[in-house]
Amino acid sequence: MFDWEDLRHFTVFAREKSLSAAARRLKVDHVTVARRIAALEGALRLKLVERRPRAYFLTPDGERIAELGERMELASFAVQRTASAGQSGIAGEVAVSAPPNIAAMLIAPRLGELRKLHPQLHVRLDGDTRNISLVRREADIAIRLSRPVDEELVVRKLAKVSFSLYASKAYLASNGEDAQSYIAYDASMDATPQQAWLQTQAGAAPIVLRSNDLAIQAAAAVAGVGIAVLPDFMGAQDECLVRLPHTGAALEREVWVAVHSDLRHAPRIQAVMAFLAACFDPAMNQT
Questions:
Q1: How far from 115 is each of 37, 123, 263, CA to CA, in Å?
Q2: Helices 19-26/4-16 angle, 10° precision
Q3: Which pLDDT tens digit goes with each residue over 54-76?
Q4: Deepest of 50, 64, 181, 279, by most Cβ within 10 A of its Cβ?
């Protein structure tokens, strides 16, 4: 018999295509992943990977075992969801994934309210920009700025987030309203509506800073580096920043919440879903 944990590590490696990526996903070091793969090969008496100096590659047998492992992994997640959905009462852990600044500015400040209502409920709040998998239980609930499309999910639109151009009072005093230097996302975010809208606003003006982190962009705008595109729930709260006029249509993003259909009726999931919806109503009215 093989160890299921060995197969799970191998399956994640096969999906992620590298030891380092699998290690990050599993939250272990790459040596552990390599050791688990070797242990599985020993138990199965089958060569699953070709070991080369800089990478591992699946053998034909490895590809077949990875496909079977994927099915077993999905079945195990289904068992976990079924067991989780059957628990009564509003207690236990609920894992929520949300964009980092939504998590930090709209959800985290109100978690005390949820604790008072349901003291036996524990929330794990992760700030994520990647599309985590609810099917694989990387979280129980996900908040995203685009509509999730997996057919196993139940989705609901929570709100719309508006964006504007912001610059610091010091930047405007030093450069005048006609001076334009912009802060943008890096190339990894070129496909986002925010980046496209910024490029429309900036035109030929220089991009003086690029960052994949919105909090860094906001801090740079406050420091007078240039003009940034920020969500209004973020920019309007900072007294150092001034909202600037824009050209053309305004930028809005829809906020969606998703949960796996197996979990939608679990009492603790419903309690957290109601709480998350309440987090957005007053915030959206501020803009």
A1: 42, 9, 21
A2: 120
A3: 888 999 999 999 999 988 888 88
A4: 279
At residue 287, does pLDDT exceed 50?
Answer: no
- For 130, residues 6+ apart whose C-beta sits below 8 A from its C-beta are none
Give the integer Cα–Cα distance in Å for 154 and 149: 9
pTM above 0.90, yes or no: no
Closest listed residue to residue 177, CA positions, set 167, 162, 185:
167
Check residue 41 and give its pLDDT.
95
Q: What are the backbone dihedrals phi and psi of residue 263, each rounded to the nearest 5 degrees, phi first?
A: -105, -5
pLDDT tens string 129-169: 878 888 888 899 999 999 988 888 999 999 999 999 999 99
- Across 149-165, b (16+ Cβ under 10 Å) vs e yields eeeebbeeebbebbbbb
Task: Give the helix/strand (H/E) hosting 274.
Answer: helix 267-285
Which residues neighbour 280 within 8 Å (Cβ) at sequence distance 6 or greater?
Answer: 106, 158, 159, 255
**C-beta of residue 133 within 8 angstroms of C-beta of residue 74:** no
